[in-house]
Amino acid sequence: MDNNTIIQLPAIKGIIGDWVYYQTVIPFKEVIRRIDNDHSIREYGSLDDHLQRNLSKRSKKIGDYLLREKTRFFNSAIIGLFGGQPNWYNFDFAPTAIPEMELSEGLLDTIGILELTGSENLFSIDGQHRIDGIKQAMDKDPERFKFDELPVIIIAHTDDIGGKIRTRKLFSEINTKAVSVSGLDDLITNEENPVDINARRFYAEFEWFKNDTFIQLSAASNISPDAKEFTTILNLKEVNKTLYSKYYKHEDYRPSDEVINSLYELSVSFWTAAINKIPKYKTIFIDGKYAVNNYRNIDGGSMLFRPLGIRILSEGYSTWMATKGNVDEFWAKFVVINDDLNSIYWKDIIWDNATKKIKSKTSPKFLLEYIKYLLGLSSDLVYLRVEYNKLSGIEENNPNKIELPAIP
Asked: What global pTM score does this model have?
């Protein structure tokens, strides 16, 4: 961008592979003045147009985040530099400056001042959304960010065909070679979404689950039929999603502690009632007479001890509470539904007796309509009959002739 003023930036110079880079920080106001977010390294303009169309929505979220959060923070943006005459000045420590240290020449060569004269061209290689978000936030409240600095890595770029290919390759490697965070790692570290925060709290605090005695820390939401634990922490998260869905919509930022605590109480109410009202749960968690393996085995057992079955329970509970509101009436209706996976209610629906496995691909929409039907709530009967026909292998073309299992 066109900027003729000189700026000195404290920097560390490094080398990785065949790239020489400078790690530094740039004040937000200079980010806006100096970094071109529109410079093209793509083969055709239409490819950049597509990227720009996808820029605005994410950038707005970042701008809102900056305006909202006092504890805001970014990782480093990667900035390409070409043209102009930037200067690098090494620090020169006198021997008496740090008498107890002997600083090597190589170390001294990495620490210095990067001077930008204003004649350079700076553009974003990785960090367009952050830079555009900064611009949007600065337009609204520049005073808020007068001390904020963006960490950046500046690399030399050659703005010809070969240089553009090299820089595109760098962008690709940064964005495709990174290992994504697993669902479990995200649950453990997330401090914004109440479904994660409260799943961790439930794992640590809920009296009947007793940390890892009954809840498995697994990267999968499913659980082995011979596992001693009741369910997985990821399944607790899925239940939270269902319980909270009618009361709270997550907006990519941490809500108030009051909101988080009120949602946690929804989880406590659900699980406390389930443990007290479902006889099989009660014999394990309260009476201590039986173990999980008494109700879950390779041949099936109870759907209430499978993650999918627990989610069906939570879907039924959440839907009932939103439409009827009488919690005791819900449990009275639910506990009379046969929970045996080999019963007419669940065999071929979520249980494949031939493979001895849960049918994880059964449509969530069908399962929601199905549990509503079993609870006596209004449901789409035509849709249910058609889907039930497919799942159970009944060859009947007339939906009106297909008989669903009787409501208990």
From this structure: 0.75
